[in-house]
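Sample A.
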Amino acid sequence: MLNELQIRRAVLDDAAAIAEIYNQSVLHSTATFDTEPKSVDERRQWIDAHGDRFPVFVAEVDGQVAGWAALTQWSDRKAYDRTAETSFYVSADFRGRGLGRGLMRHLLDVGRDLEFHVLLALIVSENPASLHVCKSLGFEHCGTMKEVGFKFGRPLDVLILQQIVAK
């Protein structure tokens, strides 16, 4: 477990750390279907575009950004306004220490405070750690998209998990 974990709203100065953590997954895992690393400037623009309704957070351990999480707009169609997609990424140096769970708990709390009705998690089927975190926090599997991604020379399934968080 982590003793000195602090989760706070991301600022533009966090873009380099966020990019570094994300790019670990881009280059070495199927946790994201991005195949090209993101630049620091792209991450700054991404943070800025998220705004108050769909915030980005960072988790710091002893002052170092060790992970990040975000609520992202599910669709620009009006009927989906109360639905958001969750995502979290943890630096390879900090995995397996409860950071992902802490970030997802935070997203659930913020999602309720922002009056979302449903939070979604889309997770590649070969990511048991993320699946475990989400299921242990009450997300339920509600569908599988077969072979919708292709990375590292193979097709990949994506599991759709959801949690109704409305107060």
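Sample B.
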Amino acid sequence: MMALNSDSSMGISDPQCTSKPVVAHIELNCSEPVTQQLDCQLKTLQITVLLAPSGTGKSSLFNAIAGVAPASGGLKVTGQQQLGMPAHKRRIAYVTQSPLLFDHLSIAALLKLVAKQQAQPFDISWAIDPLGLTDKLVYRAHQLSGGQRQRVALLLAMIKGAPLLLLDEVLTGLDQLNKQACIGVIKDYLCKVQGAALLACHQLDDVLALADSCLLQHTINNSTQWQMFPVDEGVERYQQQLLESQSSENIQGSQFTSMFYGQVHAHFPALGLTEYHVGGQRCFAAYNSEHQIGRLQPLILKANRLGLSKIALPESSFVNQLKVRITAFYPVNMGKEQGMLVKVRLANSEQDGVHKPASLHVWITRLSFNQLQPKLDETWYLIGKADALHG
């Protein structure tokens, strides 16, 4: 289990978002390679992720917004119309999925070159060290790893100082430490420029850690349209879309991540634990001193790090035992191992009257499923260690 920090907007919608200034108003129609429409507003500090399988037009939509692919409609950034403007003049910074960096220059020289091309270059010196690139400035692009090149591309994009940031799989290939550093830099940048970001990302735990809203696809009259949801609802809807799609046999249990909310009850630094209460039930996650007692915090569970038990276990190293009700079963494999994804709802999880009862996923092997024989609407216990997922 992992606790997220709502003070930094990690995975939870800002209740004041509706009162924040609009950074971008997008009303785009694209016809290549798929017909799609996007109509949304992005507000200050808002990070919105596009959730859709590969090959459904996310990169094409980003290209249209950035000005490197045709589109019709409207695209305003801080009130200024961007359609019809060349890409380099748009108030948009774009980090592509496969950035092209000049190999004949060092990274330091490349940063200086891009800065000289800007009328008012944005200072990115503060971001170099958090991204782990201080000792890489003398290198050339071909000497860097894929993740390091991606972080250099983020620096280059930020030099533009644009209030709308497009991030196409910017976290792909990064280990957890570098992901957290990258997430921190992105959020700091948006604070400095009072901007907003659109993100394409396939790892749902990264989505929950970074975004506060999601855009999901639905089809109307052979046209793909994007609809916005709060991040927790969007992730749940997207996972349900995956389960109900015709290609569900290709999904993996490791892809399923769930989020619910717990009230911070107590800290136990000597044990490395923080206690949360969820609808009258106790649960524990890794110690986080930044979580204030009494605050509601989002908590993340990954389906393949959990288990089920028909009865409550005696005291053991499994410190989390949450009472749940089974709502659905889906055949989902883990690599070559056959298994079942069990969908459950936390008992008494209305919590503060704001969030609906949480829906969670648990992946178990087909052998375990046959031995346990769980049935719909039965009450079971969700079992997971406090370190079920690391931040």
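B remarks: The domain at 2-245 is CATH 3.40.50.300 (Rossmann fold). The longest helix spans residues 176-193.
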